[in-house]
Automatic annotation (TrEMBL):
Annotated ranges, domain Alanine racemase N-terminal: 9-224
EC number: 5.1.1.1
Magnesium among keywords: no
Record-given protein name: Alanine racemase
Keywords: Isomerase, Pyridoxal phosphate
Organism classification: Bacteria, Pseudomonadati, Bacteroidota, Cytophagia, Cytophagales
Gene3D superfamilies in alphabetical order: Alanine racemase
InterPro entries: Ala_racemase, Ala_racemase_N, PLP-binding_barrel
One Pfam family cited in the UniProt record for this chain: Ala_racemase_N
GO molecular-function terms, A-Z: alanine racemase activity
Enzyme class: isomerase
Cofactors (names): pyridoxal 5'-phosphate
Amino acid sequence: MAFLNLYRNKLRDNFEFLRGKFREHEVAWGVVSKMLCGNRSYIKELIDMGADEIHDSRISNLAKVKETNPNVQTVYIKPPSKRNLSDMVKYADVSLNSELNTIRWISEEAVRQNKKHKIIIMVETGDLREGVMGDHLIDFYSKIFELPNLEIIGLGTNLNCLNGVMPSADKLIQLSLYKQIIELKFNKKIPWVSAGTSVTIPLMLHKQLPKGVNHFRVGETLYFGVDLFEEKTIEGMHGNVFELFAEIIEMQEKPLLPMGNLSSNPQGEVASIDESLYGKSSFRAILDIGLLDVDPKYLIAEEGEFEILGASSDMLILNLGENPKKYKVGDLIKFNLKYMGALAVLNSSYIEKRVV
C-alpha cells in the first residue's frame, strides 16, 4: 500500500518561521487546512503546534477542528451555499462572503442558533473569482452592517487563484482604502484587511506590504515553504514536509514501444511512436498508485532517476532505463509533491497517512 509521510518537525519549523514573520510585521494569520482533507491526525498536529485559527472550504473539516479543540476559531473560506447554512453557522465562527442574499440568510440562521457570526466581505481585485466589485462595495455594506447576529470583521480578497493575477502593493492599498472609506462613512470599525493567501507572503518578506493589511490566510507556503513569486523554497523553510512512497509491484525489462494496432486509452490518449526506439528496451517498474490517487504531472522525483511513462486508474508506470539503482519488486519509490498532487493524495482514501 502506498503511504504519505508528514514530517512533524519540518511542519513545526515552517509554522514557527511564519509565526515569527507575521509577528514581526504585526499581521494576524490563520492556517488553511483544506489540503489536509479533514485528516484528524494532521489537524491535531496543527492545533498542537499552536494554530488558533483554522480555515477550510469544507464544513465537515471544520467540524473535525471543533471536535478536536472547540476554542480554535474556524473560518469557512468560500461563499456558503444556501443548503449548507445551518451546518456552516454551527461549525464556522467566520465566513467569507460576496452575496447579499446569502449574508441575510446567514443572519437569519445565526438568530435561530443564538450565535454571533463574523463576516469577511470579499472584494474583487482582478482575478475574477469571488468578490464584490469595488464600485458596489459601499452600497453592499450599507445593506448588511446592521443585520442581527452578524459582525463584519474584515474586507478580503483572493488573487492568483483562477486567472493567475498576482498581488501588488497597488491592489492591496486599494483594499485598505475601501476599509477606510467604509469606516469613515458609517462610523464603524473593520478590524481586518485580509490580504490573501500564500502568494502575498513575498510582498511582506520584501517589506512591500501596505501598512493597512493585517491578516493572512496561509496554506501552501506553510506546507511547502514556497515563494510563489519566484517558485522556490524560502530560505529557512522546508519544501518537503510531505513525501509520498509507492511500492514496486512489477519490475521487468520490456520494449520501449507498444506493439499492435493503436487506439485511444481510457484517458482518451493515443500513444505517439518514435520510430528511432524500435528494437530498444528498458526496465519498467509498475507502482501501486494511479490516477485515482494523483495525476502524475503533480509528482516530483529526484532529477534523472527515472521517467514517468503514464498511469492507469490504479498503476503508475516508470522507465528506469538500465535500472542503475537495482530496484526490485517490493522496493519503495519516493516522490515529493506539488500542491495539487498533495491535495489529491490526501483526498484519496486508498493512501495511508502517517506522521513521522
